[in-house]
Amino acid sequence: MALKQTNLQIAMQRPWLLIKATHKGMGYAFTAHNTGNSPAVITWRDPFIPGYDIKTGESLPPTPTYGYGFSEGGELVHALWVAPGETEEIGIFDSFAAFRPDARIFVFSAIKYGNTYDDTIHESRFCYRISEGTIALDGPPGYNDYN
User: Fold this and answer.
1) For the chain, how many helices (H) and strands (E)?
2) Using CA atoms, how far apart are residues 110 and 91, in angstroms rounded to an integer?
3) CA neighbours within 13 Å on the CB side: how many for 15?
4) Is there a contact between 138 and 114 (Cβ–Cβ < 8 Å)?
5) How far is C-alpha 30 from the chain's CA centre?
6) Whole-prediction pTM value?
7) Domain of 78: which CATH number?
8) CA 89 – CA 102 distance, rounded (Å)
């Protein structure tokens, strides 16, 4: 029982980074918003988020592949700190293709981040679909995951 209460208390105090997309220039900017109660330190991100034009009837691979260093354990040279309630830009997708009327583009990436009180590394994985001039959270299972 005590361990359960301790884990609950830690989960309530830890940082939680949620990813948001906003229109920027000829593409979109992705930001990490810390909805948690302690600072987050982003240790990995891919600043240039790729887009994949998926035709109707086609699908994304069952398992997403992220930029160099994600699975290899790479880290940023200069970590990004995000205070509780604050937002930090983590990457961009910049393409004229996003505004084609027939576009069906999926953009996905992930970030890794830690906190100030232990060595636990958390991940926020996200996938957005761009079509008909709008962007929405979408994607197969496993593409959108926060831990």
Assistant:
1) 1, 10
2) 10
3) 31
4) no
5) 8
6) 0.84
7) 2.60.40
8) 28
What's the angle, vertex CA 84, arms to CA 112 and CA 40, rounded to 5? 25
SS3 content of the chain, % helix, strand, coil (to 5): 10, 45, 45
Domain count, the chain: 1
pLDDT tens for the chain, 147 residues: list them.
Answer: 777 776 677 667 889 999 999 888 888 899 999 999 999 999 998 888 888 888 778 888 888 888 877 777 777 778 899 999 999 999 988 877 777 777 788 999 999 999 887 888 999 999 999 887 788 999 888 899 888
**Structural domain containing residue 42:** 2-146
CB of 37 within 8 A of CB of 14?
yes
| Single-letter amino acid, residue 3 | L
C-alpha–C-alpha distance, residues 139 and 23, integer Å: 19
Give the dihedral sign, CA 78/81/121/94.
negative
